[in-house]
User: Fold this.
Amino acid sequence: MGSTHAMGGFVIWFALERAHLSPPLGIVVLVIGSLLPDIDHPHGTLRQVMDLPKFLAQPVNEILPHRGPTHTIWAGISFSLLTIGLAAWAGNSLLVTLGTGLAMLIGYGSHLVLDSLNPSGVKWLSPWKDSKLHGPIRTGSRGEEFFFYGLIVAFILAALWQY
Ligand SMILES: [Zn+2]
Assistant:
């Protein structure tokens, strides 16, 4: 699922970049944002990169059930505000600061949208509202494969689009 998420983030960034709407660190922030929600997943891409030792990974798994608190719009907003804080602290202009925060929000949001296509679904507004958004595409299935190719087609369309 990690590659699909990163691909989703990348395609969105590419479209923004072509429309000259992307801040300098946009792609980095956007792809990090698209992978960040799965820090609660033992086999998530970021977790594997960080490679937490077992004695740490176990408690993190217990504190954060998969598709728990990190799979909500609140977590997305929190990480975006954090990004805005970091970008402002680094001395960026207001426009770049807000753009970088928006890149995080779009990346994070794209992850939640992609997970919402999965039967396990996403409780976007949990714990405020427990309703779940879910779809028919199973992780690691033909469906995800087709979806991944769909993203590549979207990428080619974004590349060919005349602004
Ligand atoms: Zn996820």
Observations:
- Residues 37-38, 71, 111, 115 surround zinc ion (CB under 6 Å).
